[in-house]
């Protein structure tokens, strides 16, 4: 989708601070971080959000969470703790209609979020 910023980033057509990439996923630093470590993990293929996942996407979601684990370790927040968040639709705060996981760390996280 040429209008989707994450599709353009995944295709190398838009700038981003990429920290990891492979044939299925891209991880990039959030432009408006909410924590000292705030990395977005996106699939290369356009999927609007968690509700748009198909049964055959199960392996992809597992891979994306594995990438979240990897970037948290690489960023040095795995031992102290990190949060992985997926916002679904506007009321939950989803601002880009492309599935993405936020990896947040580097500071204590409150509960409940929001």
Give short descriptive properties of this protein.
single chain; 114 residues; alpha+beta; 5 strands; 22% strand
Descriptive account of the structure:
By secondary structure, the chain is of the alpha+beta class. The chain has a single domain (5-105), classed as HIT family, subunit A, CATH 3.30.428. 20% of the residues lie in helices and 22% in strands. It has helices spanning 5-10, 58-74; strands at residues 18-21, 25-29, 37-43, 82-85, 101-105. It is globular and about 35 Å long. The N and C termini lie far apart (30 Å). The model has no long low-confidence stretch (mean pLDDT 96).
Count of separate DSSP helical elements? 2
Query: How many separate structural domains?
Result: 1
What is the assembly state of the chains in this entry?
single chain
For this structure, the CATH topology is HIT family, subunit A
CATH class membership? Alpha Beta
Radius of gyration: 13 Å
CATH architecture: 2-Layer Sandwich
Class by SSE composition: alpha+beta
The CA-CA distance between the termini, in Å, is 30 Å
Overall, the morphology is globular
Summarize the structure.
The chain is of the alpha+beta class. It has helices at residues 5-10, 58-74; strands at residues 18-21, 25-29, 37-43, 82-85, 101-105.
Question: Would you spell out the secondary-structure blueprint of this structure?
Answer:
Elements: H1 5-10, E1 18-21, E2 25-29, E3 37-43, H2 58-74, E4 82-85, E5 101-105
Antiparallel strand pairs: 1-2, 2-3, 3-5, 4-5
């Amino acid at each position: 989708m040429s209008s989707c910023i994450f599709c353009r980033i995944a295709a190398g057509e838009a700038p981003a601070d990429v920290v990891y990439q492979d044939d299925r996923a891209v991880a990039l630093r959030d432009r408006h971080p909410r924590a000292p470590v705030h990395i977005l993990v996106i699939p290369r293929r356009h999927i609007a959000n968690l509700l748009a996942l198909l049964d055959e996407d199960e392996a992809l979601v597992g891979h994306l969470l594995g990438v979240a684990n990897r970037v948290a370790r690489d960023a040095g927040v795995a031992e102290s703790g990190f949060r992985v968040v997926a916002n679904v639709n506007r009321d939950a705060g989803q601002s880009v209609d492309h599935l993405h996981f936020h990896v947040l760390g580097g500071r204590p996280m409150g509960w409940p979020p929001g």
